[in-house]
From TrEMBL:
GO terms for molecular function: ATP binding; ATP hydrolysis activity. The keyword Nucleotide-binding applies. It comes from the Bacteria. Keywords: ATP-binding, Nucleotide-binding, Transport. This is ABC transporter ATP-binding protein. InterPro entries: AAA+_ATPase (IPR003593), ABC_transporter-like_ATP-bd (IPR003439), ABC_transporter_ATP-binding (IPR050763), P-loop_NTPase (IPR027417). It comes from Anaerofilum hominis. Residues 2-227 form the ABC transporter domain. Belongs to the ABC transporter superfamily.
Length: 295
């Protein structure tokens, strides 16, 4: 469905994207991941035909994205990283306008989506919060039931309840047979929806992974406080595998099943235990190296 071949956009000074080759199959949900500034938006903008590659190409359904930009933009569902609206319009008027432009005659699906996301479309867009604007952008991308959706950080600004509704929406579209490419910083969203992920770092592909592989790589960071500091020292010495002891507390990263770790810990008296699940940013840092920025 999407084929990038040696796709390059060079902004100078090492910024941009370089030599990206990957493919998204029909019916697949592909995560597009990487730290801030890695080049996700630059890649997506080339898929939309907004900017011309310096070298290489990206094709959608066999058509070059830059040469066939207008047609591709009309057909697919796109959710930009920073949606630009006609701010004076109400949400609903804007969606009607967009539906007309895209030749969507049935507004029923848009209404259904507005209800699902509890979006009140009667307010002017300029008065809406970031999260509400994001809901308008989601409805705009999905309302035509497109075969292909390209989504740039689709849940940015949404609360956890709405993030969950978004995940359900993506799973429904996947069942319908839609192909989706989605950039994201949120592990849960990626874990629950994506079949594979393209991971980019500093403008280059670091890996194309199946989700199972990424899940196996993800670490659980345990912090265990022991009743006695000498127990903490004994546990840290016996566990090894990168356990760090400080006073009565040991921190350890566990990959995969925590069973062996918990059994080893249970040989001692434990005062408290904390679990931190690794974020995507932390995973990039420990697995692929480089900078991890806060979102
Ligand atoms: N028009 C431009 N002119 C010059 N440099 C640019 C331009 N657009 C992007 N860049 C640079 O290219 C690099 C990749 O930016 P891009 O926005 O694609 O990253 P991203 O992965 O989408 O990051 P984020 O997660 O922050 O959205 C950055 O270093 C950015 O500063």
């Amino acid at each position: 469905m999407i084929e990038a071949e040696k796709l390059t956009k060079d902004y100078g000074g090492g910024r941009g994207v370089f030599d990206l080759s990957f493919a998204v199959e029909k019916g697949e949900v592909m995560g597009f991941l990487g730290p801030n500034g890695a080049g996700k938006t630059t890649t997506i903008r080339q898929m939309m035909g907004f900017i011309r590659p310096d070298q290489g190409s990206v094709r959608i359904g066999g058509r070059d994205c830059f040469a066939h930009a207008a047609q591709i933009q009309r057909e697919l569902g796109y959710l930009p990283g920073e949606p630009a609206f006609m701010e004076d319009m109400t949400g609903e008027a804007f969606l009607h306008f967009l539906a007309k432009m895209k030749g969507i005659s049935d507004f029923g699906r848009a209404r259904e989506l507005m209800e699902r996301f509890e979006l009140d479309g009667s307010a002017r867009i300029k008065r809406m919060s970031k999260g509400t604007k994001q809901k308008v952008a989601i409805v705009a991308a999905f309302m035509g039931g497109p075969e292909l959706l390209i989504l740039d950080e689709p849940t940015s600004g949404l609360d956890p309840l709405m993030q969950n509704r978004f995940i359900d929406l993506v799973l429904g579209e996947k069942q319908r047979g839609a192909t989706i490419l989605m950039s994201s910083h949120i592990f849960e969203e990626v874990e629950r929806t994506c079949d594979r992920t393209v991971i980019i770092r500093e403008g280059r592909i670091a890996a194309v992974e199946r989700l199972e592989k990424l899940k196996k790589t993800k670490r659980k960071l345990f912090s265990v406080q022991f009743e006695r500091p000498q127990d903490a020292a004994a546990f840290a010495a016996s566990w090894q595998k990168g356990a760090r002891q400080q006073g009565d507390t040991v921190q350890a990263a566990v990959t995969g099943s925590p069973d062996a770790f918990l059994k080893a810990v249970s040989a001692y008296s434990v005062r408290d235990i904390d679990l931190h699940r690794e974020t995507l940013e932390e995973l990039f840092l420990h697995f692929y190296g480089g900078e991890a920025n806060d979102q």
